[in-house]
Amino acid sequence: MPHISWRLFLAAAIALTETTKDHKSVLILGGGVAGVIAARSLHQHGIDDFLIIEARDELGGRLRSKEFGADGRQATIELGANWVQGTQEGNGPVNPILILAQKHGLKAAKSDYYNSIMTYDETGLVDYMDIFKDAQDAYTNLTIAAGVRVQKRKVDCTARTGYSLVGAKPKTPQEMAAEYYIDWEYAQTPEQTSWIASSWANNFTYDVDQGGFSDGNLLSIDQRGFKHFIQAEAQTFLSPKQISLNSTVRTIAHSGDGVEVTLANGTRISGRYAISTFSLGVLQNDDVLFEPPLPAWKQEAIHSMTMGTYTKIFLQFEEKFWFDTQFALYADRERGRYPVWQGLDLKNFLPGSGIVFATVTGDYSQRIEAMTDAEVQAELIDVLQTMFPNTTIPTPTAFFFPRWFSDPLYRGSYSNWPSGFVSPHHTNLRANVGNRLWFAGEAMSIKYFGFLHGAYLEGLDIGTIIAKCVREHECKSLPVIKDVSNATPFVV
Ligand SMILES: Cc1cc2nc3c(=O)[nH]c(=O)nc-3n(C[C@H](O)[C@H](O)[C@H](O)COP(=O)(O)OP(=O)(O)OC[C@H]3O[C@@H](n4cnc5c(N)ncnc54)[C@H](O)[C@@H]3O)c2cc1C
Ligand SMILES: *[C@@H]1O[C@H](CO)[C@@H](O)[C@H](O)[C@H]1NC(C)=O
Ligand SMILES: *[C@@H]1O[C@H](CO)[C@@H](O)[C@H](O)[C@H]1NC(C)=O
Ligand SMILES: *[C@@H]1O[C@H](CO)[C@@H](O)[C@H](O)[C@H]1NC(C)=O
Ligand SMILES: *[C@@H]1O[C@H](CO)[C@@H](O)[C@H](O)[C@H]1NC(C)=O
Ligand SMILES: *[C@@H]1O[C@H](CO)[C@@H](O)[C@H](O)[C@H]1NC(C)=O
Predict the structure, then answer these.
(1) CA dist 102 to 87, 96, 111, 235, Å?
(2) In which band, very low, low, confident or very high, does the pLDDT at 45 lie, cut at 50, 70 and 90?
(3) What is the pTM of this model?
(4) What is the number of the ligand 2 atom nearest to the C-alpha of 246?
(5) Which residue minimizes the CA distance to atom 5 of ligand 3?
(6) Which of the listed residues 21, 40, 92, 112 has the most CB atoms within 10 Å of its CB?
């Protein structure tokens, strides 16, 4: 008898030591920009008893680079984020990503979206810059009309409704491609995108008169990868014991006492607080299970925002045979069929690399993710043959595209605000569930959803709030709107 109870006592003591050992103040779930910056906020407020739990073998998340090209002719390319979007004008507000990029000596080139471009259609090189400029004017008109709607407290509609109401009704392949050159940034079509929120998103990042940073963009060509800026920043304050890499979270159990996560290998780690920075796509697709399930108001918010997909498809050739501009626009009769091309084999970019890439978005991304690489490559060669009828397009020396939509760690590229998503939904998307479970990441940013700076600012904000919770043993919850209702309900 005494023997048995001694063993029981020992087992209990060991169990106790183990839980205490793994019990952190804060678990940061995901090591992308939001996770790293949340950790930095905690550190800056004197809290170092946190753990970043990340599935991949490095920090950076959707800052993801790859060595690409034939043997002996490789270059680092960006599969995910590539631009610092909206930099700074004069002494105005500055994109916080620009500050970090400069601090860590990131190599980047000025990206000239609107002037360094050539236009093509199904007959080859054709100048339709007049149509291209009209599409930009129509977009400006769309954002102005959105501002009027906000002022008059009118209901949101789709960007397509907005375009039609300002008189822009693209029909020809050239008109559709010119319009696409604006909506590719939302990774979805105007039919799928909120008129008001997309106008706000544009203004808050690019329009200095509306509080934006600037209309300038820098494209990272750093051969350490764009991720370098966040990994170098992490090195300034993180120690290895504060990061658990190769650790995939399966479940998040939460209560008023704290949070316990279970990893794919069965290990449990507990914390007083947790910040989930997983992408909206991960939250939508049950790749991580919450116990108990998230409340109805939270689930409605998660499923009402959209995860878009933005896909870059890279080709390398022996020799450059394409445009000398940074960009090319190709107008196919099918909207969204390989419309945007970017050359990297350029002075100030990656000269001599032989690399060119096309971008597709939204439903078209999903379409190609279901195809084989060989099938997609054949379609691209076909389009290049159409764009350059006088050149026999050679076989590429390398080919690659990432499948963001199918990847269980992302399930898309970044969030996009649809017209059925209303401000109270956003309030709920951002809100904590109970006092212990918090959310951060690009999708939670009302002004900068989709962007790196959105992820940064959410990490900063939520990290600061939790630091206060830990220090003062008390948390001030973010607002929640339990029932999101219509001002004017439907009547039949
Ligand atoms: C193709 C593409 C192009 C883009 N272009 C730009 C651009 O040019 N400029 C710009 O500003 N923004 C761009 N973005 C958006 C930008 O990359 C994101 O907004 C930002 O990186 C999101 O950071 P985050 O910390 O919110 O999320 P993430 O970076 O997604 O961080 C979350 C982390 O959680 C990890 N994770 C997921 N599931 C689990 C799990 N179950 N267990 C453990 N870990 C898990 C992920 O691996 C990831 O590291 C682009 C994104 C993509 C994909
Ligand atoms: C993570 O896994 C990769 C590949 O499986 C391995 O090379 C690396 O050493 C691991 N890193 C850590 C910190 O466990
Ligand atoms: C934008 O609005 C202006 C002023 O109403 C109008 O003159 C112009 O034609 C519009 N442009 C486009 C492309 O719709
Ligand atoms: C966007 O900026 C324009 C000015 O360029 C402004 O007229 C408009 O009201 C703004 N739109 C919104 C939705 O704030
Ligand atoms: C499971 O993963 C964690 C974190 O990566 C690691 O510390 C632990 O040793 C692993 N456990 C087993 C049983 O493999
Ligand atoms: C392609 O060749 C045709 C016929 O020789 C010529 O008219 C056309 O200008 C050429 N196009 C280009 C882009 O060089």
Answers:
(1) 11, 10, 16, 16
(2) very high
(3) 0.95
(4) 1
(5) 141
(6) 40
